[in-house]
Amino acid sequence: MHSAGELVIAGFHRACEKHPEKTALIYLGEKFSYKKIRTLVDIFATALHDLGVKSGDKVMLYLPNCPQFLIGYFGAQQAGAVPVPVSPIYTPHEIRYLINDSGAETVLCLDTNFRYIREVFSDTCLKRAVITTYVDMLPAYKRLFGFLFDKVPSGLFEKGPNIYPFRRLLRKYPPSPPRLEIDPYKHLSYILYTGGTTGFPKGCIATHAGMVSFVNEIRALGEGHIGEGNEVFLMVNPLFHQLAQGIILGMVLTKGNTAVLMPIPQVDSVLHAIERHKGTLFLGAPTLYRMILENDRLASYDLGSLKYCWSGGDVLPLEVFNRWKSRFHVPIYQAYGATEVGFAAMSPLDRPPMPGSVGAPLPSRETRIVDPETLKEVPPGAAGELLVTSDFISKGYWNRPEETAASYVEIDGKIWYRMNDFVRMENGELFYLDRSADVIKCKGYRVSCSEIEAVLQDHPAVVGACVIGVPDPKVGERIKAIVVLKEDVRGVSGSELTRFCKERLAEYKIPQYIEFRDMLPKSKVGKLLRREIRDEERRRIGKEKKPIRV
Known about the structure:
By secondary structure, the chain is α/β, with parallel strands linked by helices. It is built from 16 helices and 27 strands.
């Protein structure tokens, strides 16, 4: 266990000193040792410092899973900056807002999405862009082969005074990062964005001390189960998500283990990687587990090396849990939390996971199950909304006082985060029952209904919109929008509104269904009654949830 009073990168440095020649990352078949990655991190930190990045500045990471993400993440922290990881599939509409809200003056992005950066550059606070490619970290012969046979997605970017090729920076600078005094209890280790209740994504923040505390608890959970220097972890979950960051730091890069980075998580590629690299640890959303089980070629792959599997991002259906255990004789453990609090609970590894449980609360996470209206604790075993607090979690959002007031409450002198999930406690573990109508879990992503509604209401023909989740066994929920058009509007179709959303929202946020109505139900004070519409939809499709008997 390591002190919370240190920087996030300190644990990685210790692993580098203890296991310099061990493989830290495998990416597109290429292996990178701990020594190599540390050198690249130091070089990138040196480059950022020379380019004018100062302590406390924000560096946006607009990247998929690749070595450059981790080099940028640690390199920014080493230079005293704050990494801001975001989804690589965000649109210009989204990325413009995120840059300005975070105050990022530097972005590290792929050449394939540089066109979006170029489109919004003059409308933001950006001062510089560092451009990389999917194959920048590969040997020259592999890069040449990939381009000759059109195997590598690529984009164009023009040279300019504020545009810096990533590979050129690595060649230009020595590994001499600045020596800075950074207070781990005050300095931010990241800003991560999640869906907002007012239509805008909100920035979740954590100090270095908070993130180190979080990583320490994940390490502690694995003691006696997760080896040091001999585990191979298949990193399928996106690194811009805190779930993936917590696992890769807590179980891989601070323990001398190996992470296989999957830039595009196609099922056959994942199965091939597990077999080829003898993967022992695996993390996936329930959707991915179901896709693997339903793959026609599953029997042709050897997954016998797997030791521990985790599910996160959504509720794991009991049917998937049972099929996976029956097929591979390895249970699926749970990791449950939110970007605001990190992991709130995980399944203990010293016993088989309890079906339906999302795990036991982590030691530092204090939990309460309350009546959502009164915030009074419910009787033991009863259902209620989950509240979470900890000494180390953030007590609010980045520059969002109205979002903070809506999501955090003070009780008994402590600031608690409202998880918007309804649970009950049984034998020391949490059992998930339902979620707030304001949040949809689609393909493992947490989607804000209000964000999609705000985009739809930007359309000149739309006067009102309500977005709900429709239960779906394959992806958790699908997104449905109920739309009210202005009285004098004619000829506006669902296809047009879908195209409108595609220009402004990431793919996983696009409504799959659009229904037109004359009006939406609202309360006496004009608040949209989204839960009423969601419950109506569930009844209509015959999938209304039965009451939980406790």
